Amino acid sequence: MRTARRISQALFFVLFLFLLVMTEYKGTDEIKYPVKVFFDLDPLVAASTFLAAHSVPRTLLWSLAVVLLTVVLGRFFCAWVCPLGTLNHLLSHSRRKSSEQIRRNRYDTRQAWKYILVVFLLAASAFGLQLTGFLDPFSVLIRSFGLAVSPVLNYLARAALFPLLALDWPAATAVAEPVFSFLRTYLLSFEQPYFFQGLLIGLIFLAIVLLNRLRRRFWCRFICPLGALLGLLSRIGFLRLVVDKDKCTNCMACSRNCEGACEPQSSESWVRSECMPCWNCVEACPTQAIGFRFSLPRRADAAVDLRRRAVVSSVAAAVGAVALFRIDGRKVVPSSAVKEGRESKKFNPALIRPPGAVDEKEFLERCIKCGECMKVCIKNAIHPTLAEAGLEGVWTPYLKMQLGYCEYNCTLCGQVCPTQAIRKLSVEQKHETKIGLAFFDTNRCIPYSMGRNCIVCEEVCPTPRKAIWFEEKEVVNPAGELVTVKQPRIDPHLCIGCGICEYVCPLADKPGVYVTSIGESRSPQNQLLLDVYGSGMT
Known about the structure:
By secondary structure, the chain is mainly alpha-helical. It has helices at residues 2-22, 43-53, 63-73, 76-80, 83-90, 98-104, 113-126, 137-166, 170-186, 198-210, 218-223, 225-234, 253-257, 280-284, 308-326, 335-339, 360-366, 372-376, 412-416, 427-432, 446-449, 456-460, 500-504; strands spanning 239-243, 290-294, 382-384, 397-399, 437-440, 468-476, 482-490, 513-516. The strands form 4 sheets. It has a two-stranded antiparallel sheet with strand order 1-2.
């Protein structure tokens, strides 16, 4: 069974890496194998999305199969499937003395913290505050690999191969060209990715990895909310550990090799909700005193009982978190809106969400900060927020137009979103979707400020009818001459806010044209106050 478990771990970890690589532009406008399929098996994401948004995508219903199997087999998912659990397992190898390994591998009452944490996360979701994505293992792993590990590997591969390709040395070129061609086709990103918060996310992931030196599978034992949810479900499970006291010599080999620190040396001390069934204890026992059998559920073990006070405290903390996260200047409701009985708020002009994103309130209820949309963006335009969306929106996606732009015919971000925070759009729907509106800074735009023609923004505008047009004006140039220049204008009815004009502007430090979130299709409130081509207010 231990050999079967290792094979299962290896297969699922390789599958995860394969799907992560395939969640990338590969020359087609369709992602056939998105890594989001792992979220379809995640009951924590399904539960938190349902509680926060009151609906879940159909694919997340596959997580019910994991729930049923957990009731039967216990926390098998943690030891047999979860790629983050596998990674922690690989990095938890220790050369300490046997007695020290036993001491460090005993059950710690602080392992109950993760149960309090999962109650807090689900309670917060019930109040509309989606925090699960910060700690869900799949979100952590995809975000870390997509925004930190993958960019580093891309950079190292290019840094190693580009000098060889540049050498005037046929032997080096003969080796480097096919290697780079293979990597570019199957492994590397379409372009070298760069992400804001990439360093922070990478350091957090490094901390998760290094904590395994403190305790074996530290993340799985003390933090993981998905493991905690599965542990609660396994307490009513049918799989039970049985120890033959007559054969047991109390050598503690089972405890030394246990992945969950679940005290397998006796049936009475066994902490069922911490057992991953990895079968290490069975394989390690020299007298074959340990085994598993199926039986009817009994009273749940008392070692990790959630006391009423702990549950109430977790719910109260969730209520406090909702209040803390919502008292944000960007969510101020003007008194006039309150009197009229309508909802209104301040909008951050820099908060440009990906095309297909639902209205901001629902978006924050659905988005789990996994980073899949950021990784898949062809032009590296989507980045994680820090303060742009307030505390509630940390690490949610937004477009940074000076680093990239929204490709006119690309619909990849909606294809990979696991919770439908970003809806899947057809190419035709994408063409009609506005994510913002461009404006010219007349103090910096070359035709306005320098009296010279510049038509770069109009040339690259992708809409069939150009959203940028020119008005000829006579101006005095710096030499004192009267010249005619073409000054660009924006047609707000045609502009979709893709940001390519801002990206290609010759003013590299601060472009003369910029995009804000106003006019976005997803929000009926974040609109121009005047009908610029009409005669009245809108």
